[in-house]
Amino acid sequence: MKKMTGFAALLCLNSFIVQPAFAQAEETAMVPLPSQDDFSKGEDGWSFGLGLTVEYETAYEGSDEFEFEPQPAGAVQWRSGDNIFYFAGEALGWRGLRAEHWLLEAAIGFDEGREENDSEDGYLDGLGDQDEGAELVLQARRALDADWRYWLVSRVVASDEGNLALFGIGRRFGDQVDGTGSEVNLVATFHDSEYATKGFGIDAGQAAASGLPQTSMSGGLRSIGVDFNYRQYINENWQLYGEALFEYYSSDVRDSPIARSNYEAEVGIGFIYIF
Q: Which residues are registered as beta bridge partners of 265?
């Protein structure tokens, strides 16, 4: 979740890439959304994609430090009609299309947590390390037209350290049905007090160790954000993809001593080889 210059560069990618003739109509994604990994090319059975992405991102939630980070990309998938089961890194899940207008998803993933050394400038010193934890992610998209040009989206992230909810609206660009093209989503994110405290609260022990004031957090609006996704075939097996995200924090989050910036941002670009 990066600089607006990077976001603008991603928007311009489509101008420099020639549309390949081999992106055939019969290679139909379950839904034509660039944000969804679908390596099936319209066929049931196993599919596999492997690649690498490089992200330029905020070092931790609320940070004003940025860093480059390489990440593996891709997934192992099994498709049966309008259902895809997948394993992608630290996430195991299912995605299904229902009544042509509903895209539902359920996954179990992991939150990496936060470490004191995530801040090279020492702003997290004394706050301790947070453990990695499991999360249940439930998501639904409701298309507002037949070709998934517009949709409503909702997502709930539940864990033993609090809950997060997201609601928004999306727009797809391009006429491809193979999952390439670009899309943008405008969203509002809410968190409960436990989730807010995990990211931005400071208890008495942390305050004593860090010198920062003790801070309690309440639930409510976390942020307003926008994200952009792009995906394009380079040839029959290689995909280029990119994403950019900007999240502007609510006043409650901005008031936390941990939030040294009013926003969180991320831009990434990568390649995936589909076997």
A: 246
